[in-house]
Amino acid sequence: MSRYREYPKISIITPSYNQGRFIKETIESVLSQNYPNLEYIVVDGASTDSTLDILRGYGERILWVSEKDNGQTEAINKGIAKSTGDIVAYLNSDDLLLPGSLFLVAQIFLDNPKIMWLSGDGWIINANGKKIQLEIKLFKNMLRLFPVMTVLAIANYIIQPSTFWRRTLHDDIGFFNEDLNYVMDFDFWMRAIKKYPLKVVYKNLSSFRIHDSSKCGTAFEKVFREQQEIVYKHTSNFFIRKLSDLHYMLARFFYKLLKRY
Q1: What is the residue range of 41's domain?
Q2: For residue 224, what pLDDT band results from cuts at 50, 70 and 90?
Q3: Maximum separation of any 2 CA atoms in the chain, in Å
Q4: Nearest to 43 by CA among 96, 89, 92, 108
Q5: What is the DSSP pairing of strand 38-44 with strand 63-66?
Q6: Where is the Glycosyltransferase 2-like domain (predicted)?
Q7: So what's the pLDDT on residue 124?
Q8: pLDDT of residue 218
Q9: Is 174 helix (H, G, I), strand (E, B) or coil?
Q10: What's the CA dihedral at 184, 186, 189, 194 to 10 degrees?
Q11: What's the total number of domains in the chain?
Q12: 89 lies in a domain?
């Protein structure tokens, strides 16, 4: 058997809209992995900036489509529906995979045939790629020591671009909820962890970017509010709800403090 065929096929989906200033770096972070069984799909929402010129420059190295859509969640689902990989993940058009991530992820899935999904650590970076919010990174690293649904409901400890799952997970819990604008990933994690334990990887797999036009940078209060709605949807436990409410209030205060400084 060739070395190529030994590796499971990984499909990475990148939803995109007018992220020309970041998307090339995002694409390079995926292609430079040199993973031999990669399917990389960019689903663009009819960008009007430099995005399409950048996508055309990659020729057949990536698959892409550019057409109007109803936003990020629909783009992710569209990409997943087009994909054919055994392992799936999505990487937003301003985030980065760190070197060696795909080989590590593939090996973990090969060594653990029963796991359905995994999530690793990651950095938080600004528009210039500088590491920021190290306190939040440390807090989430600590929470991932207890990868159970109760803790996840209280405080979302999952790093989205560091999270990968088997394609068959969609057969069981469906796709991302297109009624959600901000935390469609959190809703997906909650559905997944109700059925399958999370495999935590204590290595940095990605960099999550916060900047002046990102959702977490401009609408963090809406993000937290929608997240609380998801918590109340998935659990009726009074104490978990109230602890989640407390975390929301503290996180809201902390994010406002960070923006001030």
Answers
A1: 6-260
A2: confident
A3: 57
A4: 92
A5: parallel
A6: 11-133
A7: 96
A8: 55
A9: coil
A10: -110
A11: 1
A12: yes
